Amino acid sequence: MKQTAILFFCLMILFPASVFAHPGTLDELGGHFRNSDCIYLLHEPTALAKQAKTKEELVKLIQKYNGNERCKRNLTPERIDLDGHTLGGKEDNASLRLGRTYKAALVKCIDGDTAKFRVNGHVYTTRFLFIDTPESTIEVEPYGKEASQFTCSRLKKGDIVLETDGNTLFDKYQRLLAWVWVDDRLLQEELAKAGLVEDFYDYGDYKYEQRIRKAYEEARQNGVGIYSGHSAEEKPKVDSKTKAEPAQTNPQTEEETNKADRERNREQEERTSEPSSGLALYTLLGAAAAAGVYWLIRQLK
After folding, report:
1. Would residue 175 show up in a list of annotated catalytic residues for this protein?
2. pTM score, two decimals?
3. Terminal Cα distance for the chain, rounded
4. Which of 133, 187, 273, 297 could link 147 by a cystine bridge, Cβ 3.0 to 4.6 Å?
5. pLDDT at residue 275 greater than cutoff 50
């Protein structure tokens, strides 16, 4: 029993509570401080946050309900990022439905296959249906930046319409799944034609699958984009179908809790890391704790 207590005490020294607390955990307002620069990011405004009509009022709520004392000390309205949300407006309760089209306004470009749009007064992080472009946020892959620039340039130059399809509205990371039309041109098809689609990210059977596959094959055969500089035999070929896990269907009632290596709704700038000096300190404490445990156990034998 004594050995268990000693071990628990040493583990508490080795792994303080602050290590286990994810720096991006949302507070009661639906936001968090970015540790690297203490910018407050309002990701998913709760009913409490919606009480604020101005950033000044929001500052007071953050001071009251957020526990990051270090960052709160210097918080000003200019250090709040609303992440596309607005204050003081009425929430539109109109829910989206499958098989419908919705006019959308671009809020933020994220990468080649993800963006934030405002639809019916609500901001949705949207994962483009069916396609997977090279990574350009967490990890920068070849042609990742090109895919991101291609998508962003298209989205900024035309009228946007989102079309829902398949058997679910949202993936398990609470991203809206949709076909993206820009001036009546299917953006997924345009990306495939440009050779910027490397894989298929499938959540079901979709209306425009064959159009995308045809454009993808043409890009491979013609050596466009990702497939330039290789013979047709050398070019990578994706599986005919990649099934994803079952998705959630209501982003308003379930908070996103998991991260995936392909997740795009949180950008790299929102990811924080502990200072190297802190890691060195934890390493030293760990070594000391381990030595202490070993010594105490030997004494108790």
Report:
1. yes
2. 0.52
3. 13
4. 133
5. no
